[in-house]
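Dear support,

We are seeing what looks like truncated structure output for some complexes. This example has two components. We would appreciate it if you could run it in full and send us the complete token output so we can diff it against ours.
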Amino acid sequence: MASIKKQIKEASWQSNPIAYQVLGICSALAVTVNVENALIMGASVIAVLSGSNVAISLMRNVIPHRIRIIVQLAVVSTLVILVDQVLKAYLFEASKALSVFVGLIITNCIILGRAEAFAMGNPPMPSLWDAIGNGIGYTWVLVVIGAFRELLGGGQLLGFRVIPISFYEATGYVDNGLMVLAPAAFILLGLLIWVSKELGGAKGNE
Amino acid sequence: MDMLNNLLSIVTTSIFIENILLANFLGMCSFLAVSKKVETANGLGLAVIFVLIITGPMNWVINSYLLQPGALEWAGEQFREIDLSFLTFICFIATIAALVQFVEMLLEKVSPALYNALGIFLPLIAVNCAILGGSLFMVERQYTFIETIFYCLGSGIGWWLAIIAMAAIREKLEYADMPKGLEGLGITMITTGLMAMGFMCFAGINLKKEDDGSQKEKSAAVAVESEGQLASLSAAEGGR
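Here is the complete output from our reference environment:
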């Protein structure tokens, strides 16, 4: 049990997929306009990642080396189709808001990166924990960025008003419109990476 | 003439106003990994343009004649009801992966010089989100075949432009003195943010002469970001 905890902690914090491994940046930025999208995206990625890691780990000894990328892509896109259909059925609004980015989970480097780096060489159970750890690591980064963008850009969190209207009127405070646009996502992620590297002891990758 | 205008506006929009990298965040991974040198960035950028122009129209054909609801009508009356759109993702990614492989082999045979120039980048492209994203956006915005070609061309050029600019900036950043935690990825993200802000200035250009209805339809397709844009526009107006 302790080793599982350690593995999850390491994957989600010390070697966080976004901050250290530079994986999965594309979707991390696009869906973080608010917390709700970030949570749904995080959950979808955890689902796909666990499924693909376990499936590929089970098949690791029978996949011919030369065509492994195609096999991995086939497994991942099947899982993404499942997630997409579930979202369309139960969370239609959210699936509209995420638009093409659900489909783009296929090319999310976290999924293929973990399949290639971990699941191809490890048994199913550790692969599952690795997937969950990385998924959590991905989700918390998304949620933090989403929270900043939603709070500063609209004064809300998860759709609830946090900064009261009276505060706007009393002080002349204005929402930062830039926060909901693309540049703020880049800059916030840059700052987040900076902070997490300073806290994590600046391992410095690249 | 109208059609020409429309195509021109699609190209300009996809290069500058809705740059696939800076506004839609597609292709970030390879953008970050390969933007250390202008030369390699150029190679990858050209390869992306090349693959996008081929895969986009090809996926359009697959989507319109195989996958869309009612797309199989050409095969006979009884197939009219079939809706295979849930297979979109797997078909697109298979096309892209197969095509990248095919292009690689073809180039190796036909033009070794170009193959050597692009060689190492081609396999990377199969998992570049910009390529799949281009195809998915084209479906969502319901472009026609010609529009798709121009959209893919524009997106490719936009991506190439962004990665070259980034590589040039990063070459200079090598000499900058900055906090240790900010080095590498951190400063790259922030610089990209500033670049995205620069590209946002193009948003003021209005090329579309279409009626409001279709314009709204198109911007609705970019739901995630344009929602934000509208919000910020109204916020900015409120501020004034």
